[in-house]
Write a structure and sequence with these properties.
The complex is a heterodimer of chains A (110) and B (114). By secondary structure, chain A is mostly beta strands. Chain A is built from no helices and twelve strands. In chain A, strands 2, 5, 6, 10, 11 and 12 form a six-stranded mixed beta sheet that branches. A four-stranded antiparallel beta sheet of chain A has the order 3-9-8-7, with no helix packed on it. In chain B, the strands form two sheets. In chain B, strands 2, 4, 5, 6, 9, 10 and 11 form a seven-stranded mixed beta sheet that branches. In chain B, a hairpin with a 6-residue loop joins β4 and β5. The chains are: A mainly beta (110), B mainly beta (114).
Chain lengths: 110, 114
């Protein structure tokens, strides 16, 4: 079975600052990795996913993530955040099935 | 309507009530899911359906009863719930059960059990 750990439950940042949301996973089988975003009163929406190939994955809204197999990590980054990026972010891993982390609440302050 | 829709968006019920949550997907997908989202906890997968057949039940109490009449519709029937069942219930769909496929989520039903 797989498991996902999101290392920060809350990340406050100022507008236009860079941000990194951390995600570590464990699995005994090959995995695919996902980041989803949940805006208030909405369901989850896919930001990006890693299936194979280049370890640097670019997603929507200027986000990117890097798959690091040796460190079993898939951290999400954005070089300059906006107020509208305030949301809950979920890392997910699939091997035999899909497992989600507990989420990181990103709050962007003016 | 596009994507995945869920009704109602909010539901308040007593422990002796019977109610149902509805999910509909307009994406032509074959797999549908029910998740429970509680604060500060990972999403909990409850049920999985593929081509209308239930493929997974993650030890969910029998007071939750799913129904999938066709590949586009999914219901969650609720009866004699407990206050700890209060949560956001999310429905999702995917093309099939291949683990590399993205899941598309509805906006959820916010359930409060009094």
């Amino acid at each position: 079975a797989q498991s996902v750990t999101q290392l920060d439950s809350q990340v406050p940042v100022f507008e236009e600052a860079p941000v990194e949301l951390r995600c570590n996973y464990s699995s005994s089988v090959s995995v695919y990795l996902f980041w989803y975003v949940q805006y208030p009163n909405q369901g989850l929406q896919l930001l990006l996913k890693y299936l194979s190939g280049s370890t640097l994955v670019k997603g929507i809204n200027g986000f990117e993530a890097e798959f690091n197999k040796s460190q079993t990590s898939f951290h999400l980054r954005k070089p300059s955040v906006h107020i509208s990026d305030t949301a809950e972010y979920f890392c997910a891993v699939t091997g035999n099935d899909m497992r989600f982390g507990a989420g990181t609440r990103l709050t962007v302050k003016p | 309507e596009t994507g995945v829709t869920q009704t109602p968006r909010h539901l308040v019920m007593g422990m002796t009530n019977k109610k149902s949550l509805k999910c509909e997907q307009h994406l032509g997908h074959n797999a549908m899911y029910w998740y429970k989202q509680s604060a500060k906890k990972p999403l909990e997968l409850m049920f999985v359906y593929n081509f209308k057949e239930q493929t997974e039940n993650n030890s969910v109490p029998s007071r939750f009863s799913p129904e999938c009449p066709n590949s586009s519709h999914l219901f969650l029937h609720l009866h004699t719930l407990q206050p700890e069942d209060s949560a956001l219930y999310l429905c999702a769909s995917s093309q099939d059960l291949q683990v590399y496929n993205e899941q598309f989520f509805g906006p959820g039903t916010r359930l409060t059990v009094l």
